[in-house]
Amino acid sequence: MILDKKKFYACDKREYILQENEQFLLWLNKNIDLGYIPPLNLKELQKMIDVITTWYEFKYPVSRNSFYDIEVPPFTIDYMSDAMTLTALRTRLTTKERVFLDCKFRIGIQDTQDDSVKFIIKERSKNVEHQISIDCKTGLLKDADLEFLELFQDVKDSISIVEMYHTLKMYDNYDISELKSIHLHHKTDLRLRRRLFELINLALIYSKDATPEIGYKRAQMFSREFSRYFHIDIEPPELESLPLEKPQKRLTDTVKMMRLISKISTKISDHRF
pTM of the full predicted structure? Predict the structure, then answer.
């Protein structure tokens, strides 16, 4: 299907511009209020979206004949595109951005270089603190004294933090506030990463240096490569499902959006310092 390029781009809601995406900002603000501390602030999140989008625009230029299978000028840079692997892309990202993309288990803002996460479970009846350590990549138990809970005595090596959380939250005798924080942050990190991937797909589709069809092909390649690398399932929306009506500007919401952005930025800053 060949779309009317001018009409298609006029319908771009620019959701990949975080400061203009009210739905995303409200979602992020709600999760921060629940105790979530984003690993990146809004500017850092936006920068990561822009860097990855630009990478794929450059990796799959309009002139790449073999990729798009359409008539274009004879100049191609396939050799460069093929060298632009996801591993190479990661070298263009900051340490914080790479750690966020990997979605390691964490408890609030923690040293991103650690290979484990350490926390405490308090046993109220005995006033005892139990030290727990899990692998930050897998979420599996590394070292802990779990003899206080008979259910886990025979499965120490295979316990995941998710299993631990859903089991211990049923017991009033245990203070699992730190365990709850780790579970919350990992679950929300995964959701935030997926939302950003969805926005990158839109940024590629609406890239105005090409056509909607070429933008869609770029988004497909991005989704395919990131799905394979991170072992997740993402795909761009079908072009037919995207709106073909120009979004109405709501000037009255400008102050509201600025206040929301300021509120989020302040909350993130308060957690970091």
Answer: 0.87
